[in-house]
Amino acid sequence: MYEVRFHGRGGQGAVTAAEILAVAAFSEGKYTQSFPVFGVERRGAPVAAFLRMDDKAIRARYQIYEPDAVIVLDPSLISVVDVSAGVKSDGVIIINTTKHPSDFNFDSKKVVTVDATGIALKNKLGSATNPIVNSTILGAYAKVMEIMGKKGKTGINALLDAVRYKSPAKKEENVAATKEAYETAKV
Amino acid sequence: MSRKIVKGAEAMAIAGKLAKPDVVPAFPITPSTTFPEKMSEYVACGELPNTEFVPVESEHSAMSAAIAASATGARTCTATSSQGLALMHEMLFIAAGMRLPIVLFDANRALSAPLNIWGDQQDSISERDAGWIHFYGENAQEGLDLMLMAFRVAEDKRVLLPTMVGIDGFVLTHTSEPVDVPEQKAVDDFLPQYKAEHCYLDPERPTTVGAFAPPEYYMETRYQLDEAVHSSGPVIDEVFADFEKRFGRKYSKIEYYGDRDAEVVFVAIGSLCGTLKDWIDEHRAKGQKVGLVRIIVYRPFPFKELKAALANAKIVAVVDRSISLGYGGPVFSELAAAFVNDAKRPLFKSFIIGLGGRDIKLNDFENIYNAASADLKAGKVNEKMHWVNINKEML
């Protein structure tokens, strides 16, 4: 079992990010389960979403309290929500920010940063006040999993197909942004 | 068959679509709304050319319209949740009394007040006396499969009873997971077009159904309805077996999981059983024996199957996700009553869990197991009902 928790704000696409990654993992033969924190989806409010991936059918029905990986879509959440809560000691926290990993300290847990907002805007995803970063940050996730050899590894091609499949509009822009984040993410 | 990732509520709509209903009257309510949304979309997009979608003004009207449609011999289904099912209450009894094979998807949700949109099973368990058949799924796949089977059972001329299929609100309805979607052709073979043979409204052949019954007649109609619900059991088994033959997935009125000779056995309904199975696997890995009986068919109440499954149990931990206020767990009270005249019977202990969407965790089952084991060791049950994971500081 590999468990991922997404932190975002209502309207940023955290739930869709979990679903895209689920589709990618599913297309590679994994069982998946993705769901939001139910009933709190309001634009701008802190939201969380969850993804489980496993080689066998998933039966657990509780929220993810001890994730293997955390994806933070909006860095302003860090002062509001304990994004590192329960992260496993060998876990990883991926943050959308222009800052460097050494600018963060979550009990010395591994931090990876990516300027998903910059990449998304370059690819015309959303606006400066409301960038759509969910597909982009998954590119960084794929790279991190690959380099670190984690069980949550998802092939970049499977991910790009999932991004294309789940994008309601600007399919190729989303794919390009995901690819760029994959190619430029630093671990 | 194709496998795809869908949310539980959409899986129910896919089942509704595969059943090709003639009439779908519905009123939206969280967390069942995906069902009317998708059904109206299928109709609007021409994917269900012979289906009439009726957007009514309330759930009471939804069930009223379903009754009217079904009484003409039309295959009819709808969906609702919580307050919506409660608003249907009087019409649910009428649907059963008129022996109408309506199929209803209930997204199991708490009842107000206070307002709560999240999952528990209070809504449909509160309708247990209405004369409907009740199915409960553990995951989205079971929801879809049980929904298809509900039509076959309900419309069987040996049954002719309305049937509701419950899956837990949000935890199942709004969770995306892989679901095997059967081919339309295979479903058409399993579930041919409904042809009402017995009693239906037809201007060419005037009849009255659901009419007035004074004291000399009413009790016999209730007797027959009760008989009908009880006797649907063998038909349900038959339909489950036929479904397995065609689609490869096995269903039974109850599912036994874990050690058959366990002294401590859980009984529960719905999605929490998935988490409980994970806990049981962890527990068994430590060399301790434990069992679970999951109720899939709640009406007719599976007396025979439950008694056989609990024959070796020393204490039964009944975990209810609803409560009969002023008594206790509904499944607990019914299950205990089912054994009351038996010379040899296990102890029963009542647990209330997960009301209004309270997250149900692995550790909750550890606590239940420990409480039940302590009672077993003491040889008597501490009869105080056990509220799992309740915050005492808020009381």
Q: Residue-averaged pLDDT of chain A, rounded?
A: 94
Question: Which fold name fills CATH's third level, the topology of chain A?
Answer: Pyruvate-ferredoxin Oxidoreductase, domain 3
Structural class of chain A: alpha/beta
Helix content of chain A: 25-40%
- The low-confidence runs of chain B, each spanning 5 or more residues with pLDDT under 50, are none
CATH topology of the largest domain in chain B: Rossmann fold
Question: In the CATH hierarchy, what is the architecture of the largest domain in chain B at level 2?
Answer: 3-Layer(aba) Sandwich
List the quaternary state of the chains.
heterodimer
List segments of chain A where confidence is low: pLDDT < 50 over at least 5 consecutive residues.
none
What is the share of helical residues of chain B?
40-55%
Radius of gyration of chain B: 21 Å
Q: What is the CA-CA span between the terminal residues of chain A? A: 23 Å
Number of strands of chain B: 15
Q: Quickly give the structural class of chain B.
A: alpha/beta
The portion of residues forming beta strands of chain A comes to: 15-25%
Largest interface, counted with CB-CB under 8 A? A-B, 19 and 26 residues
Order of helices and strands of chain A: EHEEEEEHHHH
